[in-house]
Design a protein that fits this description.
Largest sheet: 6 strands, mixed
Number of helices: 23
Shape: globular
CATH superfamily of one domain: Glycoside hydrolase family 3 C-terminal domain
CATH class of one domain: Alpha Beta
Structural class: alpha/beta
Strand content: 15-25%
Strand order of the largest sheet: 13-18-17-16-14-15
Radius of gyration: 27 Å
Oligomer: single chain
Length: 747
């Protein structure tokens, strides 16, 4: 008994030493910390019991109901015993402080908790969904949005976010395309790094930064049939070339954690894939953070058919490289017996515990476990004027003008009556979209509200739903048509409900749901000027709508300031500049359709559209409805003078871009490259650069790009990456289909 009390005393003295170390050199990378911090963690691990170690590898959820947050009483008992490492879905200062107090005052070793949450596109101030943000092509604005999200989340006790999602996706039937950056790997890498930097800032020990978690590792966006949780099967070259780079970009940006994906790759689920989590992530990429599962994904290895029991699932996951189990309790219930049976090693358990403790030290939690529990910050730093202004600006930047015949938009001056018609015209809840974190839908600005506010007192703005999003009730058509007939301008608010995209929200039909096309036809037949405003979390197959609508503005789900930001575009206060980062198909039969596809031995040629024995459809064009990079403006742009030259290992590209319209506007100038002949087949083109440039009406600017031969490199069957000399085609233009071209020889 005497030895027991001596041991406890030593533990308390050690923790006191940790908490008194106010001058620790904190950094986002453990390698930059003072050497004594590593030694302290090593000593702490030596003082821990097995149960306490396993506890650090266990993540459990908090619950929310009408009265606020609550935690399972059994989880509280585990926290007191030092057998929980982290809690998610817990926020607000008082609640987090109470749980942290149990951990650091009631447990033996007083190890603080990490608090995680799905801060996907804002915390309280909700920004446009990530796919919408990507359409801005504004890396600085995307990083700033995540900086605001981090400030708000940390003000409510959160210090870990399950974002960014960087899965490359080419199938819009998959609901989770809403959470990513689209189909392009190069752009996806840039956005992944920007989002990590926004969340984590320059110092994780600051009280307004949090640990990011890149997900879903790996290739979750390639789920077969676009069905969530489904199998992924591809060549290693495709995996390395198209799907892995954005995760690597996040790791290179210093991301603190990685989440495994639900899918399998080549027969091995990610959660127990040692090649993926250890050989590639840790050994090749030198990742030094911690790996967490997705929700209960260790348990699900039994359904995958790679484990016959929960115990076996826990064993293969830990040995593969999973450090923390989300909600499954598999480590909590199995690791002690697995250790006794020598199915897992103490060294591997200690390794997992170490990276979790390192994360807590990087966050400064050993220095001050309550650093994220500042009631004053919670009161002052949430939904600030700056945050709302940034959200509104991002809404307008994310909007993509898909069609604008006869200059229907912007809404002309002199309009006296505006009708907002459609099921999404005044729906606050749908403005948030999916994964809206702690956003309050009651504080959202709807399209109707935004238009009414911008129109002013001299314009009458009226509203009718016409129909619901997804049923066959036409009883509202008559009132909607009557309103349209007596109005000067009609805004048709159509699309999906917010819950129709996101996790577990795959769709086989991605046209407008319900009878919305019929409503659109009835309204457009009135002959009044009509602009369609789309709300959706994925590209839609809107061929029917496109054929009849004079104007279409894609707005995604804009979040808290949706209505105001969209109104800024509709009235011309902001000239739309967004470009889609995911191809819109003509119909579902084309899927997957993406811009950087490959030629076949019998390619379809537009110059011979009736050729029989080529790779084509009998009933539909190969071309998409709207190609990658597409987006119109209220002005017009012209390109000229493309010139490319080679100087050693560099390729210099110059082009002139002119604003040939009557108003100022921003253009996203896109650079693509095609490797004409390779030892393995290459895509018809690949994005390699862009510039977002403001051009005043009548102004011409000369732009230049510089590529190196490294930009021409690609993965070969041996998974080595290098470039091959030969002919390359340079494309520069307004989207992936409309470009100037020049061939060059690079030797």
């Amino acid at each position: 008994m005497q030895h027991f009390f001596q041991f406890r005393l030593a533990g308390f003295l050690f923790i006191a030493l940790l908490f008194s170390s106010r001058n620790m050199a904190q950094s986002t990378q453990m390698s930059a910390q003072a050497p004594d911090n590593k030694a302290k963690i090593d000593e702490l691990i030596k003082s821990m019991t097995l149960d306490e170690k396993i506890g650090q590898l266990s993540l459990f959820t908090s619950d929310w109901d009408k009265t606020g947050p609550s935690l399972n009483s059994n989880y509280k008992k585990l926290i007191r015993k030092g057998e929980v490492g982290a809690i998610f879905n817990a926020y607000t200062v008082d609640y987090v402080r109470d749980l942290q107090r149990i951990a650091v005052e009631d447990s033996r070793l007083k190890i603080p908790l990490i608090f995680g949450y799905d801060v996907i596109h804002g915390h309280r101030t909700i920004f446009p969904i990530p796919l919408g943000q990507a359409c801005s092509w504004d890396l600085a604005a995307i990083e700033h949005a995540e900086r605001i999200a981090a400030i708000e989340a940390t003000a409510e006790g959160i210090n870990w976010t399950f974002a960014p999602m960087v899965d490359i996706a080419r199938d819009p039937r998959w609901g989770r395309v809403a959470e990513g950056a689209g189909e392009d790997t190069w752009l996806g890498c840039k956005i992944a790094a920007a989002r990590v930097k926004g969340f984590q800032g320059g110092d994780l020990a600051a009280d307004n930064t949090l640990i990011a978690c890149v997900k879903h590792f790996a290739a979750y966006g390639a789920a077969q049939s676009g069905r969530d949780y489904n199998t992924v099967d591809m060549s290693q070259v495709s995996l390395y070339e198209w799907y892995l780079p954005p995760y690597k970009a996040a790791v290179d940006a210093g991301v603190g954690s990685v989440m495994t994906s639900f899918n399998e790759i080549a027969g091995v689920p990610s959660t127990c894939n040692k090649w993926l989590l250890t050989d590639l992530l840790r050994n090749d990429w030198k990742f030094n953070g911690f790996v967490v599962t997705d929700y209960t994904s260790i348990n699900e290895l039994m359904s995958h058919g790679v484990a016959g029991s929960i115990k076996e699932a826990a064993k293969i996951s830990l040995n593969a490289g999973v450090d923390m189990d989300m909600q499954g309790s598999t480590y909590l219930n199995s690791l002690d017996s697995l250790l006794k049976e020598k199915q897992v090693s103490m060294a591997r358990i200690d390794e997992a515990v170490k990276v979790v403790l390192e994360a807590k030290m990087k966050l400064g939690l050993f220095d001050d476990p309550y650093r994220y529990c500042n009631a004053l910050r919670q009161e002052k730093e949430i939904m600030t004027t700056e945050a709302l202004a940034a959200a509104r600006k991002m809404v307008s930047e994310s909007c993509v003008l898909l069609k604008n015949s006869k200059q229907t938009l912007p809404i002309p001056a002199g309009v006296k009556t505006i009708a907002v018609i459609g099921p999404l015209g005044d729906s606050k809840k749908d403005m948030l979209g999916n994964w809206s974190a702690a956003g309050n839908w009651e504080k959202c600005v709807t399209l109707y509200e935004g238009v009414r506010s911008r129109a002013g007192n001299n314009v009458e703005v009226l509203s009718e739903n016409g129909c619901n999003v997804n049923d066959a009730d036409r009883s509202g058509f008559e009132a909607a048509v009557k309103l349209a007939a007596k109005s000067d301008f009609i805004i048709l608010a159509l699309g999906e409900n917010g819950w129709m995209s996101g996790e577990a929200s795959s769709r086989t039909s991605i046209d407008l749901p319900g009878i919305q096309n019929e409503l659109a036809e009835a309204i457009i037949k009135t002959g009044k000027p009509v602009a369609v405003v789309l709300f959706n979390g994925r590209p839609l197959a809107i061929t029917r709508l496109n054929a009849m609508a004079p104007a279409i503005l894609e707005t995604w789900y804009g979040g808290t300031q949706a209505g105001n930001g969209i109104a800024d575009v509709l009235f011309g206060d902001v000239n739309p500049s967004g470009k889609i980062t995911m191809t819109f198909p003509r119909n579902e039969g084309q899927i997957p359709v993406f811009y950087n596809a490959k030629n076949t031995g019998r390619p379809y040629r537009a110059s011979d559209p009736d050729a029989k024995y080529v790779s084509r459809y009998l009933d539909c064009s190969n071309d998409p409805l709207f190609p990658f990079g597409f987006g119109l403006s209220y002005t017009s742009f012209s390109y000229s003078g493309l010139a490319a030259s080679v100087n050693g290992s560099q390729i210099q590209i110059a082009v002139k871009v002119a604003n040939t319209g009557n108003i100022d506007g921003e253009e996203i100038v896109q650079l693509y490259v095609q490797d004409k002949v390779g030892s393995i087949t290459r895509p018809v083109k690949e994005l390699k650069g862009f510039q977002k440039v403001l051009l005043k009406k009548g102004e011409t600017k000369s732009l230049s790009f510089t590529l190196t031969t490294d930009d021409l490199a690609f993965y070969h069957p041996d998974l080595k990456k290098f470039w091959e000399p030969g002919e390359f085609v340079i494309y520069v233009g307004t989207n992936s289909s409309e470009t100037l071209t020049q061939s060059i020889q690079v030797n």
